[in-house]
Write a structure and sequence with these properties.
The complex is a heterohexamer, with 2 copies of chain A, 2 copies of chain B and 2 copies of chain C. By secondary structure, chain A is of the alpha/beta class. In chain A, helix 1 runs parallel beside helix 9 and helix 13 runs parallel beside helix 17. Chain A has 17 helices and 6 strands. In chain A, helix 16 links the parallel strand 4 and strand 5. Chain A has 3 domains: 81 residues; 191 residues, no CATH class; 168 residues, 3-Layer(aba) Sandwich (Rossmann fold), CATH 3.40.50.1220. Chain B has a domain of 58 residues. In chain B, helix 2 runs antiparallel to helix 4. The termini of chain B are far apart. By secondary structure, chain C is an alpha/beta fold. In chain C, the strands form 4 sheets. In chain C, strands 3-2-1-4-5-6-18-19 form an 8-stranded mixed beta sheet. Chain C is globular. Chain C starts with a strand and ends in a 6-residue tail after the last strand. The model of chain C has no long low-confidence stretch (mean pLDDT 92). The chains are: A alpha/beta, B mainly alpha, C alpha/beta. Chains A and B meet through helix 1, helix 2, helix 3, helix 4 and helix 8 of A and helix 1, helix 2, helix 3 and helix 4 of B. The structure holds NADP nicotinamide-adenine-dinucleotide phosphate (2 copies) and nicotinamide-adenine-dinucleotide (NAD) (2 copies). The site of one NADP nicotinamide-adenine-dinucleotide phosphate (NAP) has 27 residues of chain D, from helix 12 and strand 5. Chains B, E: It catalyses: NAD(+) + NADPH + H(+)(in) = NADH + NADP(+) + H(+)(out). Chains B, E: Its main location: membrane. Chains B, E: GO terms for molecular function: NADP binding; proton-translocating NAD(P)+ transhydrogenase activity.
Chain lengths: 463, 90, 373, 463, 90, 373
C-alpha cells in the first residue's frame, strides 16, 4: 500500500514534468526557429507520461501491447506513406481517432459501478464531445480527400443536421435525468441511443460546411478533442490528461480563431452560415454589402499571397503614403511575394502624379506597369491593393454605359482574387460617381488613412 | 471533492496558459501547430491505459481506446515532424 | 481617307504632331493613307527617312494642303492656306480660336470642318485627348528648369564643408496641371516650395506633393463645372496681390501659371511686388502668351526689373519637344481612333457625342460653337 | 463536519474565481487602455478572497478587526498623503510589509506542533525569503527617500554584506539539520538566531546597490514577496495564495528583467557589480571596452528619451536607410520626443550627400541642424543616434593633436547623455582612424546594417 | 502528499502564466504594474487570516501578519490607482 | 594688413571671391582692412554698395594691385599685373599653375608669395578650404541642368493619359565629387542613372545614391594617396571605351567628369561611340577645359555630331554663381583665418603645417613645389 502510494507520487511528479514539457513544446512549436525541437519535446513528454503510467496497469498487458503496437504501426505507416498534399485530411483522421479514444474511455467509465452524479455528468460530456469529434473528423476527412461529395442542401445532409439539433436536448436529458432522479442508472435503455445520436450529431455538425472552410473546422475539432481529453482526465483524476488536454483545447481554439480571421470569416459565420443557407437556395446575397476588414486580417491574407498588385491613386498622395507603400512592397518581396504596381495614366491629379511620388520613395521603375500590362493577367493576382484610388478602378467605366466615366480604360482589379480598397470612407472620387467595386464579393474595404493602414500592415510584417 | 476542485483549477490554469501561448504565431506555422496539438491530444492514450479491466466489454473498450489513441499519437507526431522538415528545406 | 500632318510654321515651336513611337496607331487604321510635311520631325531629331521607313510619305506643305482629307496641324491655318484646302475636308489640331477667330471663319466659309483640340471637354473619358493638359504638364516641368537657369544659385540645400548652401524658395501661383508639375519638379530638385491658387480644392493637391499651400482668404471664388477657374473680382485680385507680394518677397523663383480659358490671363504680380523682391530672383510667367500674369513680362524675353529677372518663354512644352510631340500626337490619335469609322473610311461626326459636340467648332459650313459665330 | 466540508468547497471555489480574476487583472494591467480596470479587478479579487476566508476563522475576531482596520487605515493614509514623487519608495515600503506578513505567518507555522520535514523546509524557505524581502525593502525605501546615505564601500555596509553571505550556509543548515536528524526540533536555540540573521541578510543584500538601480531592485523584491506568499500558500494549503503569489513572483521577475534591460544592465550586473566593486576602489575600468546593445533595448531607451539627435553619415547612404530613419524620427515625434538631425558638412562622400537623401525621404529642412547649432546644447540631448557616421563624430578630431583628422570640427555626440552608434563592425571610416567614441562610457554600439537595425526599432515602436 | 503535488502543480502553472502574461508591456506601465503586483502580493493577508490562535505568541504573530498585510493591500491598491489616474490626465 | 579682392577678368566667370554672407568673417579679423575691385559682385547680383555697407571699400583693379598686402583672386595674374604688385605681398587664389606656370614664375621673381587654392591637400582638416571640391560639386549640379537643356525630352518618367513618357537614361563617367553630385541631381529629377569610374571604391558610393554602377573590369587601377585617380594604360583605356560605348548607346545623356590632376583629361569617348548613340542624345563634357574627355568637344560650344549634341561648357560652377561664390569665399576665408596671425597682422607661413606646405607654391622668392621649379 505504502509502495503503491509512493508509485502514485512518483507518477504524479512525472506527470507534472511532462505537463511542463508539453507547455514548453507548444510554445516552441509557435516559433519557426524552435518548432521542430518543440515537436520532439512534446513527443518526449508523451513518452514519459505513457511510460510512467505503465507502472500501474490494471488491464491485461497483452491487450495493451496489441493496442499500442498495432496503433503505432498503423499511425506510423499512414504518417510516412501519405502524400504531403494529403496532410490536412490525415490530421483530421488522426484527430478523429483521438476523439474516438476518449469516447471509448468515457464509455468504459460509464460501465464502472458507483459513479457519482458529478462523474456521470463528466462521462456524458466526454462521450458527447469525443463522439462529435470522432464522427465530425471522419466527415472532414472524407470531404478533404474528396471521398465524400455531399454538400449542404442535399437531403442526406439535412437528415444529419436534424440529428445534430436533436442531440442537444438529448444530451441535456441524459445529464439532467439522473441528477433529478438522484441516482445514476447503470446502462439504461437510452444510453446506446445516446451513443449513436452523438455520432450522428458529429456528422451533422461538419456535413454542411464547405470544403474551403475545412481547415478551420479541423482546428476546431482538434480543440474539441483536447477538451474531451481534459474531461477524461478529470474523470480519471489524472493531471497530465487535464493539462495536455486543456492546453490543446485552448490553443486550438485560438488557432481556430486566427485561421478563421485569415480567411476573413468568423467562426460563427463559418458554422452558422453553413447551417443557415443549407435550408434555403443559397447565393442570393451579393450586391449592396460592404465588407470591411482590419489591417491585422489584411496582413494575414497578404502574408499568404504569392502575387500582389498595388494600385495607388490620389488618396496615396493625400496621405503621403508613398514611403510606407514602398516599404510594404519590399516586405512582401522579402516574403516571396511578387509585387507589381499598376499605375493608371490619370491616377492622381496631375500627369505622372504617381510617378513623382513613387520615384521619391525609390520604387524601381521596373516595377511599374500600365493597365494594358496588368489587366490581361489580373485573374492570377492573389491580392490587388487599391490605395486611395477610386475612379481609376471603377468597373462601371467599362460596364455601365450611362456612367460619366464610361469609356475610360481602368485597372480591372475586380478580376483579381481578392481586392483590398484602402480609403477613409465610402465617399466617391474625383468624378463623383459611386464605385460598384466596393460591393463586390471579393472586395474588402480597409477604412482609414492610407498611410496609417499600411503602416499597421508593415508593423505586423516586422513582428 | 477537494480533489476535483484542485484538478478543475489545474484545468482552468492550463486553458489560460494555452490561450496566452498561441497569441502570435506566424501563419506558416498554423498547420504544423494544429497537427502538433493534435498529436498532444493523443494523451488520451494515458487515460486509456488507466482503464480498469472488468469483463470482456471493458477489455474491448480499453483495447479500442488504446488502439485509436496510439494511432493518433504516432501518426500525429510523425506527420508533424514531416511537415516541419519541409520548412527547413525552403 | 488621306491624312496629312503639318509642321508648325513657327520656328520657336519644335513640336511635331507625328512621333515615330505613335504613328503605328494611325497606319493601322483601315482605309487611311498618310503623308506629312517634309521636315516635320526636325525639332525632335527625327528625319523624314525615319517616317518613310514607317510607311509615311514626305510631301511639301502645299501638297499637304491640297491633298489632305484630314489635315492634322499644330497651329491654325492662315486664311490664305484655308483656300488651298479641299472643300469638305477636316482640319484637326490646336486651332487656338480665341486668338485665331478669323482663320476659323475662313475655314468655315470654305466648308471645311474644324476640330479644335483645345476644346476637348474635361470629362474623364476624354482625358486621353486633352492636349491642354498634356502640354501644360510638360510646360510645368520645363518652367522650373527654365527658371533655374536664370537663378544664380542651386535649388537644393547642401550642407558642405564650404558652408551651408540654402535651398531656393519657389513660389508657384496657379495650381492647375502646369502648376502641379512645376511644384513636383521643384520639390524633386530640393527646393522649398509654396503654392497658391484661388480654388480651395487645390490645397489638398498641393500638400499631396509635399509642398506648402499659402492660404489667402479671398471669400467666394470657385471653378466652373469644367474645372476652370472663374474670373476674380477686382477687389479679390487686389487682396490677393497684396498677400502674394509678401510670399514673393521671400522667394527666389516665382512661377505664375494662372490662366482663364478664353480670356486674357489675370495680372497677378505688379511692379511694386517685383520691386520688393531680392535682386537676382526670377519670375517665370507661364501665361505670357495669353497676356501674362506679370506686369512687364514679354514673350521670349528676359526683362530685368530692379535686378529681378522676369522671364517670358513661348511654347514652354516645346523645350521638351520630343516628349511633348509624343503626348500631342497620342492625344490627336486618340481623338481620331475614337471617331474614325473603318467601314466608310470617314470621320464619324456624331453630334450626340459630348466630345464631338465640344471639339468640333465648324461643321459642314456651320460654326458649331456660338462663341465664335 | 459535513457543513465545514461544504464551506471549504465553497471557499475553494471562490478562491479559484478570485485567482482567475487576479490573472485577468494582471493581464489588463499590462495594457494602457485597461490598466485602471485591471487594478480594480485585482482589488475585487482580493476582497473576495479575504471575505470568503473570514467564513472560517480561528483567531479572535477582535485581533483580526484591529489588524485589518489599523492596517487599512495606515496603508490608505500613506497612499493618499504621499507625494507622487515619493511613490517608488512607498511601493518599496508596502512591499516590505507584505514580506513581513509572510515572515510572521511562517514563524507562526513554525510554532505549530507536528510539522513534517517537508513543512519545516517550507517554513524556513518562507521565513528566509519573506525576511529578506522585508528588510531589503526597508533599506530600498531608506535609500530612495534619501533617509539612508550609506553606500557601497562603507564599513557598515560591508558588515551587513557579510551577514548576507553568512545567511546562506545558515539557511542550508536549518533546512538540512532536521532532515538529517529525522525530526523537527521545536523552537530550537538557533531559530531566533536564524530569524535575526535573515533580517540582517536582507539589509546586506540591498545596501551596496546604487540608488539608480533601486527600481530594478524593488521589482526584484516585489517578485520575492510574491514567491514568499506562494510558499506560505503551500504551507497553508491555500490555492489562492499559491496562484496570486506565484503570478506576482513570475511577472515580477519578468518585469525586473525588462527594467534592467531598459537601463542597459543585466540583473546579475546590478546585483553582482554592486558586490564586486564594494571591496575594491571602483572606477578603473573605463577604456577599451565596447558595449553592444540590441535593437530591443535601444528601443526601450528611445521610448523614454525626450530629446534625440540623429547624426547620419556615409553608412546611412550605403544602407539606403533614409526612409526608415525618417520613419523612426516621425515615430519618436509622435511619442513626444524632440527630434533633430545633426548634419556634418562632410558627412557622406559628396557635399550635401545627407541632404539629397533626407530630402528624398521627405525630412523637413527645418529639422536639419549644423554642428555649430547642436554642439552647444549637446548635454541636454538624451540620446544621440549615430547612423553609419564615423569620422564626423570622432572626438579625437578635437582632442588628439596627432590624429590625421585633428582640427576638423565634429558633431560632439560624446557629450550627449547616451550615444547609439549604428554600424556593421568596429572598422574605421574614410579617414581610416580608430574612433574613441565607441569606447566611451555612454556609448552603445548597435551592430548591423543600419537599415535593418532601425527597421527593427521602428517595428518595436509600431507594436 | 498528493495534495502538495497538486498544489505544487498549480504553483508551476501559475508561474508559467505569470511569465507569459508580462512579456510585452509598454515601459510607461512598468511602475504601475510593479505597484499593482505588489498589492496582489498582499494576498498574504488571506494566509494571515488562516493562522490558528494558540497562545499569546501566536496571537501576536497573527496580529502582526494581519496588520502588515493589510497595509500592503490597502496601500498598494490605492497607490496603484493614483498612479494610473495620473496617466489618464496626460 | 590690407586685403584686396579681385574680380575675374574672364567675362564667362560670374563668380566672386567675396560674398555678402561671408565677408563678416574677414572684417572680423583684427588688423585687417579690406578693399575690393569695383563690380566684383556683378555676376551674383550684388552691388558695390552692398559691400560698402558691410564696411568694404570699392577701388579700381590697379589700385587693388598696387595697394594690397594680400591679393585674393579667382584667377592667376598676368605677368604684366605681377609687376604692379608690392614686393613681399601674397597672392591667394585659384592660380591654376599647370596652365599658368609662367605667371607663377613671374610672381616668384617679384618676390611675391603665391598660394594656390587648388593645392589644398585632401586631408580631413583642410576640406573646408578645398575649392576643387566645392566648385566641382556645384559644377556637377549645373552639368545635369545644362545637359537637360539640350535634351528634347524630360528626365522623369510620367505615366499620363497621353501615354507613358519614358524616363531619360543618364550615364555619368567619372564619379568624383562632380560626378556624385551629377548622379544625385539626375536621380532627383527622376532619371535612370548609371555611372562608371575606374576606382572600385566608387561602386558603393554610387549605390549609396540609389544609382547603378556599371562594372567594367579593367584589372589593376587605383588611386593616389591623395584620392586622385591614377592614369590608365592605353590597353585599359581601350577596353573601357569599348564597354562604355555600349552603355552610351542606350543613354540619353552622358556626362563625363574624368580628370587627372595636373594632366590633360583622358579621352574616354571617341567618335565611333558617338556615332552609335541615338540622334538627339546629349554628351556633356565636364573636362572640356582641361582637354576634354570627348573627342570633338569644344569649350563653350555645342558640337553636333550625327545628331548627338556634344556640349562643352566653361566655368560650369559659375552657372550657379551665387552659391559658387559663397562656397569659394568660404574656402578662401577658412584658409585665411587658419593662418592669419592677429598679433602681427600677418599671415603665418608655418611650413611645418601640411596645408601651408602644399598650398604655398612660391614663398620669399623660392618656388616651393618642385613641379613648377
Ligand atoms: N492624373 C491627372 O492628370 C488628373 C487630373 C485631373 C483630374 N484627374 C481625375 O482624378 C481621378 C484620379 O483617380 P484616382 O483613383 O487616383 O483618385 P480618385 O478617384 O479621386 O479617388 C481618390 C480616393 O482616395 C481616397 N482618399 C483620399 N485621401 C485619402 C487618405 N488620406 N487615405 C486613404 N484614402 C484617401 C478618397 O476616398 P475617401 O475620401 O473615402 O478616403 C478617394 O475616393 C480621375 O477621376 C481623374 O480623371 C486626374
Ligand atoms: N562629404 C564629402 O564631400 C566627402 C568627400 C570625400 C570624403 N569625405 C570623407 O568621408 C568621411 C565622412 O564621414 P562619415 O562619418 O559620414 O563616414 P565614415 O567616417 O566614412 O564612416 C561611415 C561608417 O558607416 C559604416 N557603414 C557603412 N555601411 C553601413 C551600413 N550598411 N550600415 C551601417 N553602417 C554602415 C561604416 O562602418 P562599418 O563598416 O563598421 O559598418 C563606417 O565606419 C569623412 O572622413 C570625410 O572627410 C567626405
Ligand atoms: N476632367 C479632367 O479630368 C481634367 C483634365 C485636366 C485638368 N483638370 C482640372 O482642371 C483644373 C484646371 O487645370 P488647368 O491646368 O487647365 O488650369 P488653367 O491652365 O486654366 O489655370 C491654371 C490655374 O490657375 C489658377 N488661377 C486662375 N486665376 C488665378 C488667380 N487670379 N490667382 C491664382 N490662381 C489662379 C486656376 O485655378 C488654375 O488652377 C485643374 O484642377 C485640373 O486638375 C481636369
Ligand atoms: N580628403 C578628402 O576628404 C577629399 C576631398 C575631396 C575629394 N575627395 C575624394 O577624392 C576623389 C577624387 O575626387 P575629384 O572629384 O577631385 O576627382 P577628379 O576630378 O580628379 O576626377 C573625377 C573622377 O574621374 C575618375 N576618372 C579618372 N580617369 C578616369 C577614366 N579613365 N575613366 C573613368 N573615370 C575616370 C576619377 O576616378 C574620379 O573619380 C573622390 O573619391 C573624392 O571623394 C576626398
Amino acid at each position: 500500500m505504502e509502495n503503491l502510494a509512493n508509485i502514485q507520487v512518483i507518477q504524479n511528479m512525472i506527470y507534472i514534468i511532462s505537463s511542463v514539457m508539453f507547455i514548453l513544446g507548444i510554445k516552441m512549436l509557435g516559433k519557426e526557429a524552435t518548432a521542430v525541437k518543440g515537436n520532439y519535446l512534446s513527443a518526449l513528454a508523451m513518452f514519459f507520461a505513457v511510460a510512467i503510467t505503465c507502472l500501474s496497469l490494471e488491464i491485461d498487458i497483452k491487450i495493451i501491447l496489441a493496442g499500442v503496437l498495432l496503433g503505432g504501426l498503423i499511425g506510423s505507416l499512414i504518417a510516412i506513406k501519405v502524400k504531403m498534399t494529403a496532410i490536412p485530411e490525415m490530421v483530421a483522421l488522426f484527430n478523429g481517432f483521438g476523439g474516438l479514444a476518449t469516447f471509448l474511455i468515457a464509455w468504459s467509465q460509464f460501465n464502472e459501478p458507483d459513479n457519482s452524479i458529478f462523474q456521470h455528468v463528466l462521462v456524458m460530456l466526454t462521450i458527447y464531445i469525443g463522439g462529435i469529434t470522432f464522427s465530425g473528423s471522419l466527415i472532414a476527412y472524407g470531404k478533404l480527400s474528396e471521398k465524400l461529395k455531399l454538400g449542404k442542401g442535399s437531403i442526406v445532409t439535412n437528415v444529419f443536421i436534424s440529428f445534430f439539433y436533436l442531440s442537444m436536448p438529448a444530451f441535456i436529458y441524459v445529464v439532467i435525468e439522473p441528477s433529478i432522479a438522484g441516482f445514476v442508472p447503470q446502462v439504461p435503455s437510452y444510453f446506446s441511443i445516446f451513443l449513436v445520436l452523438t455520432l450522428m450529431a458529429g456528422i451533422g455538425f461538419v456535413m454542411p460546411i464547405g470544403g474551403g472552410d475545412m481547415p478551420v473546422v479541423i482546428s476546431l475539432l482538434n480543440s474539441l478533442s483536447g477538451i474531451a481529453a481534459a474531461f477524461a482526465g478529470l474523470l480519471l483524476l489524472n493531471n497530465v490528461l487535464i493539462v495536455a488536454g486543456s492546453l490543446v483545447g485552448a490553443s486550438g481554439l485560438i488557432l481556430t480563431i486566427i485561421m478563421a480571421k485569415a480567411m476573413n470569416r468568423t467562426i460563427t459565420n463559418i458554422l452558422f452560415v453553413g447551417y443557415a443557407s443549407s435550408g434555403q437556395t443559397a447565393s442570393s446575397e451579393e450586391q449592396g454589402e460592404v465588407k470591411p476588414i482590419t489591417s491585422d486580417d489584411a496582413y494575414l491574407i497578404l502574408e499568404n499571397a504569392s502575387s500582389v498588385l498595388v494600385v495607388p491613386g490620389y488618396g496615396m498622395a493625400v496621405a503621403q503614403a508613398q514611403h510606407v507603400v514602398r516599404e510594404m512592397g519590399e516586405l512582401l518581396e522579402d516574403n516571396g511575394t511578387e509585387v507589381k504596381y499598376g499605375i493608371h495614366p490619370v491616377a492622381g491629379r496631375m500627369p505622372g502624379h504617381m510617378n513623382v511620388l513613387l520615384a521619391e520613395a525609390n520604387v524601381s521603375y521596373d516595377l511599374l506597369a500600365e493597365p494594358e500590362d496588368v489587366n490581361p493577367s489580373m485573374d492570377t493576382i492573389d491580392v490587388a491593393i487599391v490605395i486611395g484610388a477610386n475612379d481609376v478602378v471603377n468597373p462601371s467605366a467599362t460596364e455601365e454605359e450611362g456612367s460619366p466615366i464610361y469609356g475610360m480604360p481602368i485597372i480591372e482589379v475586380h478580376n483579381a482574387k481578392t481586392v483590398f480598397v484602402l480609403k477613409r470612407s465610402m465617399s466617391s472620387g474625383f468624378a463623383g460617381v459611386q464605385n460598384p467595386l466596393f460591393f463586390r464579393e471579393n472586395t474588402r474595404m480597409l477604412f482609414g488613412d492610407a498611410k496609417e493602414s499600411i503602416g499597421q500592415i508593415v508593423a505586423e510584417f516586422k513582428d | 471533492m477537494e480533489m476535483y476542485v484542485l484538478l478543475g483549477f489545474v484545468l482552468l490554469l492550463s486553458i489560460f496558459l494555452g490561450l496566452e501561448l498561441i497569441s502570435k504565431v506566424p501563419s506558416t506555422l498554423h498547420t504544423p501547430l494544429m497537427s502538433g496539438a493534435n498529436a498532444i491530444s493523443g494523451i488520451a492514450l494515458v487515460g486509456a491505459l488507466m482503464l480498469s479491466s472488468a469483463g470482456q466489454m471493458q477489455d474491448i473498450l480499453a483495447f479500442g481506446a488504446i488502439l485509436f489513441a496510439s494511432i493518433n499519437v504516432f501518426g500525429g507526431y510523425l506527420v508533424t515532424n514531416r511537415m516541419l522538415s519541409m520548412f527547413k528545406k525552403k | 481617307m488621306h491624312i496629312v500632318a503639318l509642321k508648325s510654321p513657327d520656328s520657336r515651336d519644335h513640336r511635331s504632331v507625328l512621333h515615330p513611337d505613335t504613328v503605328g496607331k494611325i497606319t493601322a487604321l483601315k482605309g487611311a493613307s498618310i503623308s506629312f510635311e517634309s521636315g516635320i520631325g526636325d525639332g525632335i531629331n527625327v528625319s523624314d527617312q525615319t517616317f518613310n521607313d514607317l510607311g509615311l510619305k514626305a510631301i511639301s506643305r502645299d501638297e499637304c494642303l491640297s491633298q489632305g482629307d484630314l489635315i492634322i496641324t499644330p497651329t491654325s491655318l492662315s486664311k490664305d492656306e484655308s483656300s488651298k484646302l479641299k472643300s469638305g475636308s477636316t482640319v484637326l489640331g490646336m486651332l487656338n480660336p480665341f486668338y485665331a477667330g478669323e482663320e476659323l471663319k475662313a475655314l468655315n466659309q470654305s466648308r471645311i470642318n474644324a476640330v479644335s483640340m483645345e476644346f476637348i471637354p474635361r470629362i474623364t473619358r476624354a482625358q486621353k485627348m486633352d492636349v491642354l493638359s498634356s502640354q501644360a504638364n510638360l510646360a510645368g516641368y520645363a518652367a522650373v528648369l527654365e527658371a533655374s537657369k536664370y537663378l544664380s544659385s542651386a535649388l537644393p540645400m547642401m550642407m558642405t564643408a564650404a558652408g551651408t548652401l540654402k535651398p531656393a524658395k519657389v513660389f508657384v501661383i496657379g495650381v492647375g496641371v502646369a502648376g502641379l508639375q512645376a511644384i513636383a519638379t521643384a520639390k524633386r530638385l530640393g527646393a522649398r516650395v509654396e503654392a497658391f491658387d484661388t480654388r480651395d480644392v487645390v490645397e489638398e493637391q498641393v500638400k499631396s506633393l509635399g509642398a506648402k499651400f499659402v492660404k489667402i482668404d479671398l471669400g467666394d471664388t470657385g471653378e466652373t463645372d469644367q474645372g476652370y477657374a472663374k474670373e476674380l473680382t477686382p477687389e479679390q485680385i487686389a487682396k490677393q496681390k497684396d498677400l502674394q507680394s509678401q510670399v514673393c518677397e521671400r522667394s527666389d523663383i516665382v512661377i505664375t501659371t494662372a490662366q482663364i480659358f478664353g480670356r486674357p490671363a489675370p495680372k497677378i504680380i505688379d511692379e511694386s511686388t517685383i520691386k520688393k523682391m531680392k535682386p537676382g530672383s526670377v519670375i517665370l510667367d507661364m501665361a505670357v502668351e495669353t497676356g501674362g500674369n506679370v506686369e512687364g513680362s514679354i514673350v521670349d524675353e528676359v526683362v530685368d526689373i530692379n535686378g529681378v529677372k522676369v522671364v517670358g518663354v513661348s511654347y514652354l512644352a516645346s523645350r521638351v519637344s520630343s516628349h511633348a510631340s509624343f503626348a500631342l500626337s497620342n492625344n490627336i490619335i486618340n481623338w481620331l481612333t475614337d471617331f474614325y469609322d473603318e467601314e466608310t473610311s470617314q470621320i464619324n461626326f456624331d453630334f450626340e457625342d459630348e466630345v464631338i459636340q465640344s471639339s468640333v467648332l465648324a461643321y459642314d459650313g456651320k460654326i458649331m460653337n456660338e462663341r465664335f459665330a
